[in-house]
Design brief:
This protein has three helices and eight strands; from the N terminus they run H-E-E-E-E-E-E-E-H-H-E. By secondary structure, it is α+β, with helices and mostly antiparallel strands. The strands form two sheets. Strands 1-3-6-5 form a four-stranded antiparallel sheet, with no helix packed on it. It has a four-stranded mixed sheet with strand order 2-8-7-4. The chain is elongated.
């Protein structure tokens, strides 16, 4: 009786230990491939984008240039990619010293990404601050005192709101 095996063509005989190790190795490699695929997908969709400063002349190095808006208009000022839940982490946001002139709305998206929108409410000028949302969080982003914002400010700029035409 002739016995055929998967490894017979290569001179490898069937052995129970080899079958078990081969199965374990296949499961491990399959799991590793899935994890790598997911990581590449997540990084490709979110992590590689980085923080996008949408205020003209604002970047990671310099964010002091003033902005002019018109009453009743909105402007997306900042987009942040997914954040990792790390204790003491960093999540960039904006906060206004005078929310009655310029209100800041943060729209949280999938996987921790966010979009920061400025709303020009009435004529005047307001000082806006780039802040770490983990330090100045929640309602404090809209109602924080000016002194507290200044103490946590990473950079600040002025928004001038003009009357509607």
């Amino acid at each position: 009786m002739v016995r055929y095996s998967r490894g017979a063509a290569f001179g490898i005989e069937d052995h129970p230990t080899r079958a078990i190790l081969g199965g374990v190795t296949a499961v491990f490699l399959n799991s590793l491939a899935r994890v790598l695929f997911i990581l590449v997908g997540v990084l490709g969709l979110t992590g590689c984008q980085g923080i996008r400063y949408l205020v003209p002349q604002h970047s990671r190095e310099e964010a002091k240039a003033p902005l002019t808006m018109v009453v009743g208009k909105s402007f997306t000022a900042l987009k942040t990619p997914a954040r990792m839940p790390v204790p003491g982490g960093f999540w960039l946001g904006l906060a206004s010293e005078d929310a009655e002139v310029v209100a800041v709305e943060t729209v949280d998206g999938a996987m921790g990404s966010s979009r920061v929108i400025l709303h020009a409410r009435r004529e005047g000028a307001a000082r806006l601050h780039y802040v770490n949302r983990f330090v100045v969080a929640g309602d404090a982003l809209t109602t924080a005192e000016a002194d507290r914002l200044r103490s946590h400010s990473l950079e600040a700029f002025t928004v001038t709101v003009l009357p509607a035409p």
